[in-house]
Amino acid sequence: MKLFDLAGRVAAITGGNAGIGFGIAQGLAAAGAAIVIAGRRADKNREAISALVAHDAKAAAFELDVGNEASCRSMIDRTVEQFGRIDILVNNAGIAIRKQPQDYSAAEWNKVIATNLTGAFLCSQAAYAHMQAGGRGKIINIGSMFSIFAAAYAAAYSASKGGIVQMTKALACAWAKDNIQVNAILPGWIDTPLTQSARSEVPGLNERILARTPAGRWGEPRDLAGTAVFLASSASDFVTGAAIPVDGGYSAQG
Fold first, then answer.
1. Which residues of 170-181 are buried (b: 16+ CB within 10 A; e: fewer)?
2. pLDDT tens per residue, range 133-149
3. Which residue of 16, 161, 238, 245 could cross-link 37, Cys pair, CB 3.0 to 4.6 Å?
């Protein structure tokens, strides 16, 4: 369907070289978008690009430190230099430090907030002028089940992901006049390196997740692709400020 066709559009995905970010990159590429993978590790970036190009996608990769404002602006500018435009920004880069709240250092708290929340703001801010000049834009912020719920071991992560939802709403209200839609996806428990480490660090987590998830399984990165394509495409032109769970029913289960 033309509503979901992304041919001729350019998408930049932060943290796009693995996990959820790469699953979204694959989905956007399959819908026709040119892809920019933005991540810290050059070797992982190259692997992701090779996999996309093998399926005939147009793709490039730039190193990115979302905690650095200059790096965020450089990534967006290089995307526009390479492809002539930026239509879609997926703010996916994120980290977690699992500790009881009393055990966080200020530096650890600040690192999580800077990566997960401030970095998404800085990349969005950098993309805004280009999207405004192009007459349209789509920004997709990746939140979490921890945008809704919380856990004793995830105070900083929960705060950052709750902030993602409120920031999404604020940017949506501010930039609707520029035909820029800003939405969030809230992944449930997805099988990625980040959650694999959580299963090893948090006793009983796997069993609790499976018991609460009506779908009866962990999600896979590709499960996010359809929602991302919808939010990146013309099909969602009247959808802005939304936060959509993709969680196998986890948030619906009492």
1. ebbeebeebebb
2. 999 999 999 999 999 99
3. 16
Which are the catalytic amino acids? 157
Token duo for residue 249: 């029913």
Cβ-Cβ contacts under 8 Å for 107 (sequence gap 6 or more): none
Tens of pLDDT along 112-122?
999 999 999 99
CB-CB contact of 37 with 48 (8 Å): yes
Neighbours of 232 (CB within 10 A): 27
Instruction: Tell me the per-residue pLDDT of 21-59, one tens digit each, with 9 for 90 and over.
Output: 999 999 999 999 999 999 999 999 999 999 999 999 999
Give the per-residue pLDDT at 195. Answer: 83
Q: Which two tokens stand for residue 35?
A: 């892809």
Query: Is the pTM here over 0.70, yes or no?
Result: yes
Encoding tokens for residue 240? 């802005």
CB atoms within 10 A of CB 135: 9
Determine the Cα–Cα distance for residues 142 and 232; give it in Å rounded to an integer: 13
* CATH number assigned to the domain with residue range 2-247, chosen from the 4 options 3.40.50.2300, 3.40.50.720, 3.30.450.20, 3.20.20.150: 3.40.50.720
Q: Residue 213 gets which letter from DSSP?
A: -
Cβ density class 3-42: b for 16+ within 10 Å, e for less:
eeebeebbbbbbbbbbbbbbbbbbbbbebbbbbbbbbbee
What pairing do the DSSP bridges indicate for beta strands 243-246 and 59-63? unpaired
204: phi then psi, degrees, rounded to nearest 5: 80, 0
Query: What tokens were used for 27?
Result: 């989905």
